[in-house]
Write a structure and sequence with these properties.
By secondary structure, this protein is an all-alpha fold. The protein has 8 helices and no strands.
Length: 185
């Protein structure tokens, strides 16, 4: 059981519609390196984790990733609320709009819906931790790419916060790897 605080980790207050930005940011909701896959990866890996401290770490980061999913959903929603038909057509948002209207749907920026095939759970401590390290770096790169393509400070600041958290998660997983290796080698 988790306690839920109805407050985002970092405030999201976007004032201007930007469906083109929403089209790329949605990838961190349901893309191959996004927050949905990360949260489910870590919350699934914890079951077979034999080291209690690592099980706790996976739970903590998995729950935090759910909070990041909520932030990305909020960003996409705020970027697309009150769109005009002209904005939808001119921004390239029409294909998404036709399928999902203004609902926040787990998909990649390229339009592929989220799939569990984009996450890995092996049940082996070393393999899973290496997967987690790689996943955090891939998410960081995705945030770097988003930051190259958006120019609204109201979007940039929460994206920078999320990028920073990927770095912290990478460091926390990296700190556990030597301890884990000692148990198996």
């Amino acid at each position: 059981m988790f306690s839920y605080i109805k407050k985002l980790q970092y405030p999201v207050n976007i004032k201007h519609c930007d469906p083109a930005a929403a089209n790329i940011i949605i990838t961190q909701y349901g893309g191959p390196d996004g927050e949905l896959g990360a949260s489910l990866r870590y919350l699934s890996q914890r079951y077979s984790m034999p080291i209690p401290e690592l099980k706790g770490l996976l739970t903590d980061i998995g729950v935090e990733e759910l909070g990041h999913l909520e932030m990305i959903g909020t960003i996409v929603h705020q970027l697309t609320r009150n769109l005009t038909e002209k904005q939808i057509e001119e921004s390239g948002f029409a294909p998404y709009f036709v399928d999902h209207t203004l609902g926040v749907y787990p998909t990649s920026a390229s339009g592929f819906p989220w799939s569990a095939a984009s996450m890995e759970v092996k049940g082996d401590t070393i393999a899973d931790l290496n997967e987690d390290l790689a996943a955090e770096q891939k998410a960081r790169v995705t945030y770097d790419n988003i930051l190259r393509l958006v120019d609204d400070p109201d979007v940039i600041e929460p994206i920078k916060f999320l990028r920073e958290r990927e770095v912290v998660h990478y460091q926390r997983f990296g700190d556990t790897l030597p301890q884990s290796c000692k148990l198996f080698f």
